[in-house]
Specification:
Number of helices: 14
Low-confidence stretches: 114-121
Largest sheet: 4 strands, mixed
Number of strands: 23
Strand content: 25-35%
Helix content: 25-40%
Strand order of the largest sheet: 21-22-1-23
Shape: elongated
Mean pLDDT: 92
Oligomer: single chain
Length: about 425
């Protein structure tokens, strides 16, 4: 079993380069299916979710070449075929093939998506949007089939009952080649949606309003190739910001985008962390003894991101006093706290609210990651724990962080990745 082994007590210091956004690239890759020529994506992280998407696309008939951090994608050979169930079931973002295949062929057969176990994440909003555009859904064994009975998708006015990143992205993908105009109200506003719109518009689409609550897409007949640089991963950037603050460090997050990280930076400043916007990035400095408890509530963007919730609870554990974390996006996202308790973190959970009593010392322990962001959180906890911490089940970490432990080592952490036999088996 692969594990990350951390010996705590080393403040993070230096500069770190952040990879392209995982939550963006998992939508950008399926979007290339809509193009009639080669699309090049630069800044693509070498993570397992990307590897799964490349494999799915290759099975479908695309030709994909990786050159360092670039993907050169030729989608012209993509066939309208049922998606490979195993790979589809391994990642949540596989549902973006619904929108891209509907947009290209007017039909799609895709296995139900997987990903981290964060509680129910229904796709009813996706289906509602597709139905409004003329596609009907039927179940075919373990797969879902969407089809328009040979008719082109039609533009429609679509109101999202709740703010949904996935449903907003899928609707955009289906709408860019639909006949007429599609309006999405109560749309998600994440930077990753803006990034998708930028790529699609470079390909010849007509998408307006990305980053606001109302999106307007006027369908076009065809999309051409393009070159696009993936936006920086604000969640990876935030994870290193938290690591610097927890360890009493001094780290420059190179080229970090203030606006994308504003909710996190605001709460860090409220806790007493020094945050400085510099010409080439954002610098994080902290004095652990001066950290103050806070209350945080996760919300859709531009609120505090649920993908930073776990990491921020680790920072809360460093502040003397009682902090409160309220999770409003996912039902099952406090699993990491049970593992953190093994290291001495005092917390209790009541429905959607976690109370963390911080300021105590922590002990290294054998812990297991429960999802993508929890895995990074446990590594961060190891940085401040006394003695040795071992984090297992790294398949979660590898889904979204590129060279995570190598970047920590470059900042002065005592971290290594090892292969060990599982003592319990």
């Amino acid at each position: 079993m692969k594990k990350i082994v951390i010996n705590g007590g080393h403040p993070l210091k230096g500069e770190v380069t952040i990879s392209g956004a995982k939550n963006s690239v998992v939508a950008l890759i399926p979007a290339t299916i809509l193009a009639d020529d080669i699309v090049t994506l630069d800044g693509v992280p070498d993570i397992s979710d990307v590897a799964s998407l490349i494999e799915i696309m290759t099975i479908m008939g695309a030709k994909i070449e990786r050159k360092e951090d670039s993907l050169i994608i030729d989608p012209r050979g993509v066939k309208n075929m049922p998606m490979p169930f195993g790979k589809i079931n391994s990642l949540r973002a596989s549902y973006y093939f619904y929108g891209s295949l509907l947009g290209r062929y007017g039909q799609a057969t895709v296995g139900l998506p997987g990903g981290c176990d964060l509680g129910p994440r229904p796709i009813d909003l996706h289906l509602k949007a597709f139905e409004a555009m003329g596609a009907a859904m039927t179940m075919d064994g373990s797969s879902m089939k969407l089809a328009t009975d040979g008719k082109p998708l039609q533009g429609a006015n679509i109101y999202m009952d709740t703010v949904s990143v996935g449903a907003t992205i899928n609707t955009i993908l289906a709408a860019v080649k639909a006949e007429g105009r599609t309006v999405i109200e109560n749309a998600a506003r994440e930077p990753e949606i803006v990034d998708l719109a930028l790529l699609l518009n470079k390909m010849g689409a007509n998408v307006k309003g990305a980053g606001t609550e109302t999106l307007t897409i006027v369908g076009v007949e065809s999309l051409h190739g393009a070159n696009h640089n993936v936006v920086q991963d604000r969640i990876e950037a935030g994870t290193f910001m938290i690591g610097a603050a927890m360890t009493g460090g001094d780290v420059l997050i190179e080229d970090a985008i203030w606006e994308h990280n504003r909710p996190l930076l605001s709460k860090m400043q409220e806790m007493g962390v020094t945050v400085t916007e510099e010409e080439n990035g954002i610098r994080i400095q902290s004095d652990i003894s001066k950290l103050r408890p806070v209350t945080v509530k996760t919300l859709p963007y531009p609120g505090f991101p649920t993908d930073m919730q776990a990491q921020f609870t680790a920072l809360m554990a460093m502040a003397k006093g009682e902090s409160t974390m309220i999770e409003t996006v996912f039902e099952n996202r406090f699993q990491h706290l049970e593992e953190m308790r093994r290291m001495g973190v005092h917390s209790d959970i009541m429905r959607d609210t976690a109370r963390i009593v911080g300021g105590e010392s922590f002990q290294g322990a054998e812990v297991m990651s429960t999802d993508l962001r929890a895995s990074a959180t446990l590594v961060l906890m190891g940085l401040v724990a006394e003695g040795e911490t071992k984090v297992s089940k790294l398949s979660h970490l590898d889904r979204g962080y590129y060279q995570f432990h190598e970047k920590l080592v470059a900042l002065g952490a005592d971290v290594k990745r090892v292969e060990e036999e599982d003592d319990e088996n």
